[in-house]
Design a protein that fits this description.
With 100 residues, the protein is mostly helical. It has six helices and two strands; from the N terminus they run ααααααββ.
Amino acid sequence: MKWFTNFRRNLARAMEDRGISQSELSRRSGIHVTTISRIIHGHLEPSVTTAEKLAAAAEMTAEKLFSERIARVDQSEALVIPSELNHKRPIPKRKRGKTL
C-alpha cells in the first residue's frame, strides 16, 4: 500500500522538520500517542478522519501527507532505527517447566 508508506514518511518528516514529538502531536490532534506510534511504525492504517487530524496537528494538509512526490525524496531513509525502539523481547510463557 503505497499511499500508506507515503503517509508515514511524510508525517514523520513533517514532525521532524517542525520539532514535534509524538506526544505533542497527540496533544494537538487529540489522538492517543500509541495510535500515532502504530501509524508511524506501519502497524495501523489511519482513517480519513484520523489522517485529517494528524495533518492539521502537523501543520500540513492531508493532500501533502499522502503526496508521493514528497515521500520519494528520502526513500532510502529509515523511518525508525530499530535500536531506538527500546522494545524488549517478550519472555516466553512456560507450561509445566517447558517453553512454549
